[in-house]
Description:
By secondary structure, the protein is mainly beta. It has one domain (2-173, 181-203, 216-230, 242-258): Lipocalin (Beta Barrel), CATH 2.40.128. Helices cover 4% and strands 67% of the residues. It contains 1 helix and 12 strands; from the N terminus they run H-E-E-E-E-E-E-E-E-E-E-E-E. The chain starts with a helix and ends with a strand.
Amino acid sequence: MKQLFIIILCILTVSTVYSQDRIFTYTYQSGVLNQGQKELEIWNTLRTGREQYYSRFDNRSEFEIGLGGKLQTAFYLNISTATKAIGDVDAMALSTTYDFSFSNEWKLKLLDPVANPVGLALYAEYGIGTSEYELEGKIILDKKIDKLTIATNLIYEMELEPEPEFDGTDWEKEHKAEISLGFAYQISPSMNITVENLYRNVIEDGEWEHSAYYAGPGFSYVYKNFWANFTVMPQIVSFKEQNNSHLDLEEFEKLQCRLIFSYAFN
């Protein structure tokens, strides 16, 4: 956390303005890069707080390329480190695991949030990792009204995880359905104050197993070719009762914090 805040403070010491196509960290907008434009994004997500000790740090290094025709693609290198408590009460220990994966996204802009009544884009991503494979799709809607920006995403994700068995390999499927909703208000040419909402659901074997609602504040800041977005997202409530608690700390974390910063090569 200390390193994240040092990065934020360094970025906020400057004050020149550059246009920016993303002002949220959990919610995508319909904008895409122009043909030939390139952008490097570094994602940092801290997830902490479960039934027992749990802390996870996710890093995504993303390289975006504008292809023209309102289409862009991006390539990700993903690294995840998770430390959690294992064992029973009398013999508790900490265990750390590492995951590495590669992802590729494609995003097509269909409508513009200013020129059209609503912005619209379609998004698809696949991921190949050391422990699982992922497919993800999004419908992206957004609208800009004067200094207010509103965006929402309808998200579906399927994860495939190999489970070795005596007579071969069984593939365990997990389905996720999410809705994100972001509001941003521009307080200066270089700064937006944001609020994001995230409704998360996990479906296993046809059963609705987990459901939780997150919401929290953030900001977006831009300087020349650089921009940075930061959001704090506590879990507000679970819609599936878990151990007589109003939170689901079996599948989800109590708190997430995300910082994304970027440099545009144009």
